[in-house]
Amino acid sequence: RKEVEQDPGPFNVPEGATVAFNCTYSNSASQSFFWYRQDCRKEPKLLMSVYSSGNEDGRFTAQLNRASQYISLLIRDSKLSDSATYLCVVNGGTASKLTFGTGTRLQVTL
Amino acid sequence: DVKVTQSSRYLVKRTGEKVFLECVQDMDHENMFWYRQDPGLGLRLIYFSYDVKMKEKGDIPEGYSVSREKKERFSLILESASTNQTSMYLCASRGPGQFIYNEQFFGPGTRLTVL
Known about the structure:
The structure holds 2 protein chains of 2 kinds.
Chain A: E1 4-6, E2 11-14, E3 19-25, E4 33-38, E5 45-50, E6 55-57, E7 60-65, E8 70-75, E9 84-91, E10 98-100, E11 104-109
Chain B: E1 4-6, E2 10-13, E3 19-25, E4 31-38, E5 42-49, E6 56-57, E7 64-70, E8 73-78, E9 87-94, E10 104-106, E11 110-114
Parallel strand pairs in B: 2-11
Antiparallel strand pairs in B: 1-3, 3-8, 4-5, 4-9, 5-6, 7-8, 9-10, 9-11
């Protein structure tokens, strides 16, 4: 079983739609969780951290369910500029080392 | 605002050549990482270093070595390049592990082609 699993997509959605991505992780000792965004031919960049209580940043909401070892990202009112690959990232038990999912591709269309 | 830089954006080498990929960060981070990224496989960790002269193998270290002589610099070495090492190579750095929500910063990547 992969340490971090994501649906690869692609998710094709119209502008203004709400879209949700899910991710599962296998290491119950994981301590920190993130969503990174990667644009085509660019490096990954931090989108948001995911806290136990859930957190929101504008149109983006992240949730963590430790019991089910499950992380989600909700994007409301999608914009064309949201088109990218979204990487689920988990600290895999070793404090310094992060484990990346293979990413979910989102394409927002007119 | 430059944080992590890599020596080349594109590199073309021949099979059997020794290849050096250099990475420099200006954030005084203890932890540095080398990944390769291939379509459908995502980011795979090759090696990481948590201090000067310290290194640990990642998930796919075969065919690679690393060097960290100074805190800000982490080099990836392909001793004898092979065609299956054609890939995008990404360097990253991160602050101390005890701050579990430290952000990891990536360099722009080096696209290596081995002919």
